[in-house]
Diacylglycerol kinase
Amino acid sequence: MAGAESGSGAFSMSSVVADRSLVFWTLCSVILPVLITLWCSFHRSRRQMLIRDIFYKSEHDWHYTDLFGQPSYCCVCAQHVLRGTFCSCCGLRVCEGCLKKADQHFLCKEIVMRSEGGARGSMPHHWIRGNVPLCSHCMVCKQQCGTQPKLCDYRCVWCQCTVHDECMLDCLKVEECTFGEFRDLIIPPYYLSTIDQMRKDKRTDYEKHWIPVIVLANTRSGNNMGETLLGEFKILLNPVQVFDLSKITPAKALQLCSLLPCNAVRVLVCGGDGTVGWVLDAIDEMKIKGQERFIPQVAILPLGTGNDLSNTLGWGAGYAGEVPVEQILRNVMEADGIVLDRWKVQVTSKGYYNLRKPKVFTMNNYFSIGPDALMALNFHAHREKTPSLFSSRIINKVCRYFFYGTKDCLVQECKDLNKKVELELDGERIELPNLEGIIVLNIGYWGGGCRLWEGMGDEPYPLARHDDGLLEVVGVHGSFHCAQIQVKLANPVRLGQAHTVRLILKSSKMPMQVDGEPWAQGPCTVTITHKTHALMLYHSGEQTDDDASSVSEQEHMREQTDEDV
């Protein structure tokens, strides 16, 4: 009995020890990963804090990427890197561990510097080693650069010339930089520090054959390519002439025009039609301030959803990265100057006790009331609620024209419009047929690429123009009719052309829009009159089938513009 009791006691003790051991190892298996995770998280957050601190204090424009778009090597340790940081101005690429050292030892592009040579003086090359562009060639031996799988060869951050390591002689290191192919678009780093003195000396030699460009990019437009484009333009140009409109207003950015040669500046707007209108409004403010001689000409890189103004001026229906940034700058240099009519839209609400001021808009593209405005209003409301779902141009068009258009075909919220409104063209009242919508056009394109005024093109109507001081007014029978017009299966109801349009909404509330900005409007009077002209740039490089039919009309338009100038 005693032996059995001692044996059972020993067994119970061993089981207790085993249980405690199991509990201990269980706690270790749970707590240890948590501690390791916390330790890693602490060091990661500390490292990110140090990186952000370097980003904030640095003269470089550092950005972090999880994957470089091409084989890349750290400019400090020369190791191959898949992810790391890069400067969007000078093109330096480094791993995280070498960021601090690179920030201390490598200079970025100097946007402003002193020079004794004036605005068009000389400056040495600014060489950066490694990560040269693909298919680049040595300026000395003309052979391809960057062919070896290592950090090799040099690139000048201003003229973009590349040189082999073995071709980099001492005489080449001190050779003057000519700023390369885009010398006529670049604002030299020594220009801004000398312009005041040159104007006091009344020197004008710097103005000859120089058409500096200012890039204004909206990083929130359409397909969210603005951020990438900002970096590419900063590489090719002076970063001081490239602006992010999400951080600075066009009015402030365009103040740079007053420091540049008169009547020579060109502005490239990267964004949708709304962004273009924003920039043109800022240019109108320059006119009010008496800065007419500094007014720039405006080119467009279409990043929005509709891009009808861009399409009208030959810049295309949308940009998705298919054209290199270098070619875009060449197109801006070669573009022809034209004039765009801008219109004042005044909406005066009815009512004896209405003390509110009339709403005043500026129209570049078109005004509409009816199903077209209703689709825009529904799309705008849903995009405001969930903007992340509407970051693709294709998805935006599908939602706007298919989903909301189909819904309106079934509901017909805008029927019997002809009984609710009165239309006057140049003071003459127009008898309206049975319609659901009225559209007032200033440009040739509407609805994301449709030439609305011409319709199917089977009737001899003159092409819509944007510089003749005339508006084209059409009617539509509904959303399905709009869809038929877009695929050239129907013609619009052409109501006429006029210099002044007046529309009276007698009863109920109807959707309206001006250049894609929709709202619901009660009884009111809408008056559209000519406001001013905008100086735009027309690109005639690529043409669609619709554009081919209007080549002679555009040539006549440019010839007439030249005569006016």
